[in-house]
Give the backbone structure.
Amino acid sequence: MLPKSYRLPRESFDHVFHSGKRIQTKEFQYIVITSNNPHSRFAIVVGKKIAKLATHRNRMKRLINESLHHLLPTFSQSYDGIFFVKFDFSTLPQNKVESLVSKIVQST
């Protein structure tokens, strides 16, 4: 799990959602905005329509969190971002998910 300082608080969620840049891929919708905070902050949303089982939803969140944890040192400036998951990828290995997350984050 990401440290608390790297998690997007609920108060900032609406601001990012309404004024952020949207990037669509087959796997995710990523909404991002630059921020003045000392750290990049992220939120991950996985709906029940994507995966009925909570264990699958939580696994997808863990996979994305771990991928972001590895990518945090590579950010040159701070961002606030929201990941919306579009399909159930809970069976994919960590390295595949990390490459998907890296690809979408590097496109900002």
In short: The mean pLDDT is 92. The chain has one domain: 4-106.
